[in-house]
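Weekly structure sync, notes
Attendees: PL, DS, HV (note-taker this week)

Item 1: Homeobox-leucine zipper protein ATHB-14-like isoform X1
DS walked through the input record. Source organism listed as Herrania umbratica. Sequence as pasted into the shared doc:
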Amino acid sequence: MALSMHKDSSNNKQMDSSKYVRYTPEQVEALERVYSECPKPSSLRRQQLIRECPILSNIEPKQIKVWFQNRRCREKQRKEASRLQTVNRKLTAMNKLLMEENDRLQKQVSQLVYENGYMRQQLQTGSATTTDNNSCESVVMSGQHQQQQNPTPQHPQRDANNPAGLLAMAEETLAEFLSKATGTAVDWVQMIGMKPGPDSIGIVAVSRNCSGVAARACGLVSLEPTKVAEILKDRLSWFRDCRCLDVLSVIPTGNGGTIELIYMQTYAPTTLAAARDFWTLRYTTSLEDGSLVICERSLTSATGGPTGPPTSSFVRAEVLPSGFLIRPCEGGGSIIHIVDHVDLDVWSVPEVLRPLYESSKILAQKMTIAALRHIRQIAQETSGEIQYGGGRQPAVLRTFSQRLCRGFNDAVNGFADDGWSLMGSDGVEDVTIMINSSPGKFLGSQYNTSMFPSFGGGVLCAKASMLLQNVPPALLVRFLREHRSEWADYGVDTYSAACLKASPYAVPCARPGGFPSSQVILPLAHTVEHEEFLEVVRLEGHAFTPEDVSLARDMYLLQLCSGIDENAVGTCAQLVFAPIDESFADDAPLLPSGFRVIPLDPKTVTLTCQSSADGAGATRTLDLASALEVGTGSNRLAGDGDPSNYNLRSVLTIAFQFTFENHSRENVAAMARQYVRSVVGSVQRVAMAIAPSRLSCNMEPKALPGSPEALTLARWIFRSYRIHTGEELLRVDSQAGDALLKQLWHHSDAIMCCSLKTNASPVFTFANQAGLDMLETTLVALQDIMLDKILDEAGRKILCSEFSKIMQQGFAYLPAGICVSSMGRPVSYEQAIAWKVLNDDDANHCLTFMFINWSFV
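Item 1 (cont.): predicted structure, written out as tokens:
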């Protein structure tokens, strides 16, 4: 009976503690204050809250726990409801855009059906009533009759040098722009991969069969129209190819708008073509429905108007009626229509480069999509949807990206008005050297003049351009980013980093192979769609000899990587970097170098291949292109082989900048020229290795390294094995270094060495041919692989348990196991031996592993 009463009492107490509690406003306020600081307080924190707040003393800790649970649930539901409302608004606006696009396409179809029927009727009438000659004349006359019915718009005679004439031209520009943005003035074709949706960048289309090149986009953003207009008019902030934009005159109009006369200069994308400039009229006004319009067109001799500034180093290009239509969206935000239509004077560039100036897809990526992405980025930063680490403001990170791109473009173009001048060559025209001895004129606010010695100096740029055959640009740049040691020289990186110090190092001399280094990429920021990455790269040097210790130190680079999405159409892939110091201030000086790969239109390349029946030499349009064709497969055309392979060419531009003192200018120039040639050779090898048409080719045997460091290391490996185990690693007739290295290199078991740094993970520094085959890598790329990345969990545990034995006894036998190659393939081995390698002073140098009887699983 007592037990039963005890149970009933417990049940009543449980019911009392879990019943609904009505909180007073004061209690809710106290709980809300705690929730704002800690949404999920611990049990101790809740008990402390009851003790510290007398108004909560009558509430059980369990009930307070339930209150916090309910509060978190309400917050989650509120955020989800807000997200769904935002998605619903986007879908509603996108549906409106799609309906308008559907109406436009229906009008375009009706127009095409009418024109097709008219031409068919004229052809039938002409063939039935006249002879063959008269038939041709009838067709021509019918075409002329159609042109008379649909004449090309002719601008009326006017004086465009006064405000009234400029206003008339502006109104005509507005009408032509709107006919392209929402009408059928241009035959638009949707770009591949640009599908509409609530999270997509928008609807993107390119022109077909029109004069010049054109692109159009429609998108949604959460910013108000006036803010969007302000951002779009600041072209320098989002158009990376824009060098300068000067508003030379502003004329207010009677309808509340403005007319601006603008002079704009743009960078050339490569060293093989001249830059472009534009002289335009820009008209900003409002429509009756509240929409904002910013439209623009060039002022030429045909249109009339004031004459633009004269230029000598630029090619004058033309902007055909283009602009932005910004419509307010119900519920907030804006619907943006963008049209870019330009004539870049394609006939002024070499024939092989004309696809760069004839491609609407490249224009869409560089201007149209770039504008939409920039606005979307600003919108998400404003709403707090994007969080960056490191305590940096988004505007500061964007400035870093802009400075890297601008500095690289300045180096590629080398404008005389920036202070650049051409330096004499060494007789071979593959690398161009330019110098800038007036950094104040060149740098402006871009860099810090403390980078240059007070007793004289400047900037030297070594640059080159080349054609790549059948190499995906995104894949190449991704490889260059992830495997820096395949092409970079640590000594040159050291010299570049020394420009940030008061006393730069001596000019590095050429060394066969140098000494290895590894890199660690630290993400800093990325754009919304991850098409661009800003990151800090830490370079770690590993010295083989004592004299290298002073150079083998950590260095840092600020790096910008973009265009590595292989599915993007017409995207320029780019890798730009600049040395920075450890402090990395917001106004840190930057001297960018890097790579840019721009795809050429596959259609144009296909025609070139078809016309090269005389041999592969017909495809070598530029001298630098022939430098890529190395080996037995160099005479293959792009169209040979598997038709599923890539069939394209791309233009690679390389530019490296260095500071110099006046007394060392010639030495720095020689070093830079040699280094760029070395980088070009490395890129050629990488390009041939990753070209899809060559992936199935048999690779040549890896060359035997012959550097003094490798010979010394081989001797240390044999000697240390004999000291620790009392046995010989291999039976060799001669103890000479080259004989030992040859035996070690061709040994059937995988032998590899890794570093013994106490403050960093062990990194591989050497492997014989079997070791490279097991890891599926090269001798240079090996230095980016860490030991713990190839061992599985069991192997890491065994190595940790045996490590002390290895360091005390000098060696240890490890049981059979599984490891992983750099390509992710599992590799089994029957046994492994690990031993310390001692140098001539019997000090620890590295750790060597030998994997016996290994094979891929």
